[in-house]
Amino acid sequence: MRFLWPELLWLLLLLPLLALAYLDMLRRKKKAAIRYASLRLIREALGRGPGVRRHVPPLLFLLAMAAAILALARPSATVVLPAEHATLILAIDVSLSMRATDVLPNRLSAAQAAAKQFVADLPKNVRVGLVTFAGTAAVVQAPTADREQLAAAIDRFELQRATATGSGLLVSLATLLPEAGIDIEPVLFDNEWSHMNPGGAAAPLDRSRAAKKLPKPVPPGSYDSGAIIMLSDGRRTSGPDPVEVAKLAADLGVRVHTVGFGTREGGEVAGTGGWSFYARLDEEALKAVARTTGGEYFQAASAGELGKVYKDLHAKLGLEKKEEEVSALFSGAAAVLVLLAALLSLLWFYRRA
Q: What is the CA radius of gyration of the chain?
């Protein structure tokens, strides 16, 4: 919690003075009572005294003063509220490794089912866009709130060769922030990145080519109107380095949550002509992307685990943090305490004439 007018907090020093004044008043009353010849006669005339409860109304009044002073200092706090509007981009790997059956019935079918359930459970005001990536990346569904349209687009996923994780992330970023002026063509179709050996090093991303209107960098994760969720099951074999693209996303404040799908041991994928290959996660790259952008990394080794990951993401993405002034809460507390002090004084100490 912070205060917009912290200088007014000095008024809290008045509270100990009020407490001392109250104690001095009690001392004076006690001294005046000693002047009577017989205190016993006074007690019998007045009946049983109020005891300790006589101090309750003054204490409540003192607390009310403290709450009122805090309200004057205009306190603000970070509160979690339902997101009023948001756009999510689902970037899903459709490389041939998604045909592996270490996740039943296979990785792609399980990913499609989980994605459709995730989309269906989102609030109606959340728009969702779909991006698929393999050798390159493409928008298969522009951001929309139409759940049936999204489900149909998910069902149309088709497997392709290679894995361009960085391209998928770049296209997702351009789809989420069209106003940023991200030019994807020089990156997606440059020969420098179009053919690479598995695990080969990619050239650094030229941001002047990727984002011509790139504004001044903002804190990572500060963009609260949308996010990217990227699911991949393998290693980059073409396209730009996803960690380099993640730096661009971080400069734009976009949070990227990554999901590593498949068992850590990997799965065998049958190819054409009797050959096969082994598909294994690149967790380090996915963790680096999430860490760079202020997102989170999740690992799912089964369809059930993937469903749980999406549920966790649903809970996080349906809410947003905002800095809100909470002076009204302290003002209300002060009013309640004053009224309570007055009510107790009337109930306990009011004497009819």
A: 32
Q: Which residue bears the tokens 């894995």?
A: 163
Q: Determine which helix (DSSP H) or strand (DSSP E) holds 129, and give its type and residue range.
A: strand 126-133
In which band, very low, low, confident or very high, does the pLDDT at 92 lie, cut at 50, 70 and 90? very high
> What is the SS3 assignment for 241?
coil
Burial letters for 44-74: b for 16+ Cβ neighbours within 10 Å, e otherwise? Answer: eeeeeeeeeeeeebbebbbbbbbbbbbbbbb
pTM: 0.65
Beta bridge partners of 128: 88, 144
Bridge partners of residue 91, in order along the sequence? 131, 230
* DSSP 3-state of 320: strand
The answer to whether residues 339 and 57 touch, using CB atoms and an 8 Å cutoff, is no
DSSP annotation of 83:
-
Task: Write out the E strands in 208-343.
Answer: 226-232, 256-261, 267-270, 276-279, 297-300, 319-325
* Residue ranges of domains in the chain: 2-78+324-349, 84-317
* Cis peptide bond prior to 105, omega within 30° of 0: yes
CATH number of 84-317: 3.40.50.410
Return the structure tokens found at 248. Answer: 């661009």
**What is the pLDDT averaged over residues 33-49?**
55
Q: What is the DSSP string of 16-28?
A: HHHHHHHHHHHHH
